[in-house]
Amino acid sequence: MSSAIYLEGGGDSRDLQSRCQMGFRKLLERCGYMGRMPKLVACGGRSAAFDDFKIASASAQKGDFVALWIDSEDPVADLEATWAHLKARTDDNWDRPNGATNEQVLFMTTCMETWIVADRATLAKHYGAKLQKSALPALHNLEGRPRDVIQNALIHATRNCSNGYRKGKRSFEVLGKLDPATLNKYLPSFVRVRRILDASL
Question: What is the DSSP letter of 34?
Answer without folding.
Answer: G
